[in-house]
Amino acid sequence: MPTPPKLTPEERSAALAKASYARKRRAEIKAQIKSGALDLPSVYALAQSDEAISKMRVAEMLESITGVGKIRALSIMERLNISSTRRIKGLGAHQLKNLLKEFAAAPQKMRRGKLIVLSGPGGVGKSTVAAQLRATGDYWVSISATTREPRTNEIDGVDYFFIDDVEFQKRIDASHFLEWAQFAGAKYGTPQKGVEDALDQGHNVLLEIEIDGAKQVKSHMPEALLIFLAPPSWEDLVSRLEGRGTDSPERRTERLALAQEELAAAPSFDLVIVNTSVNEVVEQLVSLASA
Ligand code: 5GP
Q: What is residue 128's predicted lDDT score, i.e. its pLDDT?
């Protein structure tokens, strides 16, 4: 292991101050990219005279652009032959040119995000896809309100906002929901404000909801893209529902009957994606967001 350089106390405190300045400067620049105040050519121009910016990773810079998360940033870099650890100062002329071209078509100034509604029969794996998409940062995933009881491991404010019937009715009366529906004995609704705010801030928004709610969203917001997540086969869906330890046998039978009806709704959706692999579904949804 190389021995660290011997520093005087003054040199050490100067190095610490420099590192702290660099961190602050990078956070500042990332916030400006996010708000649309700085576009990529401006960041690159600043990097020529500011060492803190020139040492920023290209991936970090791209992920600061609203609507670009980890997966999209990495896939763009891979396509443009830019190593995932490359820093701004290490960009070759060709790589830089391609990167600027990539983003020139979509101005960095605030564009309204895309609204994608992921629906499909219960048990098909929508919530797994939604959780994975949330982790990528490419989508803002809406958190619904519901009157059903939390399952083990579910957290209020993370998986759902768990509320009672009286509170749910109050929110319906106050036009709080973009859509709401009854499903297997409980009510579920999408809070409208969060969705509108996220879209206005340029985030791509994902709603993971049942079919009736998806149709309501389309009638209020025709620009929404309705995606039907289908199981590879009926047998596959049955085994997924039967393998669920969280539902009672009565509830499972009810859900199977409902799933049959739900599958019949696929043709009224904009796009059907078969859930053969969660990773592939996530990749398709990320590329839809950037299309
Ligand atoms: P679970 O109780 O299994 O979490 O969800 C039951 C069903 O309700 C799933 O199909 C889920 O997609 C749907 N759902 C969750 N949140 C909402 C919502 O806000 N609105 C509507 N219409 N359906 C929802």
A: 94
Give the CATH superfamily of 115-290. Answer: P-loop containing nucleotide triphosphate hydrolases (3.40.50.300)
**18-50 tens-digit pLDDT:** 888 899 999 999 998 888 878 899 899 889 989
Residue 260 CA, ligand 1 centroid: distance in Å: 16
Q: How far apart are CA 29 and CA 231, in angstroms?
A: 44
What is the number of the ligand 1 atom nearest to the C-alpha of 214? Answer: 22
Minimum CA distance residue for ligand 1 atom 21 = 209
Closest residue CA from atom 23 of ligand 1 = 209
User: Which residue out of 210, 256, 262 has the highest number of ligand 1 atoms within 8 Å of its CB and is therefore the one to mutate?
Assistant: 210
- What was the pLDDT predicted at 108? 47
The average confidence (pLDDT) of the chain is 90
Q: Is 97 helix (H, G, I), strand (E, B) or coil?
A: helix
Residue range(s) occupied by CATH 1.10.8.50 in the chain: 9-104
* pLDDT for res 142: 97
Domain 9-104 top-level CATH class: mainly alpha
Q: How far is the CA of 229 from the centre of ligand 1 (A)?
A: 14
Spell out a b/e string for 257-278, using b for 16 or more CB atoms within 10 Å of the CB, else e.
ebbeebbebbeebeeebebeee
